[in-house]
Amino acid sequence: MTWSDELGKRIRRGDAAEQAVSTVTRIEQAIVGGQSEPAAQLVDYFMEEAKVVFVIYTSWSEGFEAFLRHKGVPSVEAEAESTRLRRSLALDPEAQWLALGAEAGAFANALRAFLLTADEARAKLESLRAGWARLHDAYADYQAGLLTSVAERFGEAALGECFRYVLEPYLRERYGPFDVRRRAYEDTVFRNAYLSFEAMRGHLCGPGRRGDLEVAEDDDKIVIAFDPCGSGGRQQRAGSFGVTQERHDWAWNETGVCYYCAHCCFALELWPAEQWGHPVRIVDSPLDDEAHAPEPKKCTWTVYKRLDAIPPEAYERIGRSKPS
Fold this sequence. Notes:
The protein is 56% helix and 8% strand. The chain has 12 helices and 6 strands. It has helices spanning 16-19, 23-32, 36-70, 75-89, 93-112, 118-154, 158-174, 189-202, 232-238, 262-276, 288-291, 312-316, and strands at 2-4, 9-11, 214-217, 221-226, 282-284, 299-304.
């Protein structure tokens, strides 16, 4: 771990290849190596990764519920839909998050005091990972369930309005530093890449839902792959929620985009291109048939290192042209 002035918090050290390794794996290695304090610090940081996602979902939940009321859905109906979804998903986010935090704190303190054998520590780590996976998956599915409700009630096109209503306040805060009117694009690449790694480890991507990612890097770009993404990719492979039947600029003008995954198009490509002229990241999200192929397609995020390296087709698929 090290301190980052750029991000204003502790982060993990290392290049892109190191960042693709899950924090769960690094905790295990510290435990096996008898490094109790580094293991405890990484447990704390595992909760930081989880917190990034938890806070996002909490903000979105409030926004989606407010959007239903904004559209004239009576409060009783909106609350009933929210309650139905939470019960079906066994979701009580606030209580579950506090319980998870208490578990993580006790685990880290036990590591620091040398109160656990290696086997005991690994068992507690798996319990913590599994507990976050349960809460994460239910909370992600709650977002998808609300989006599906919006599409069923108001029509699929209303999801674009919904994304704007729900996500814009969050986007202005989280992605404001990428505004090239305020800061040179090249100066934002580290922040962009690190936040990508951190968030997707927090989504518990990859085999075994541990947060392991795949990465490839060259002079122009960093490409991060998820097999699967722990949120939309997992939902898509399970076929749990709706996919686009029409073409929309907020869903790459493609059919077969899962409603949840479409937020990546809006948040990472369309909205920043509207605000200051270019996407933040380029997302290649599997379409419905690709997600259910014998070998499902992986989702990828690409962080380009220079503005001129972003290809024209990245703009064209959201109905825009690459600036000259």
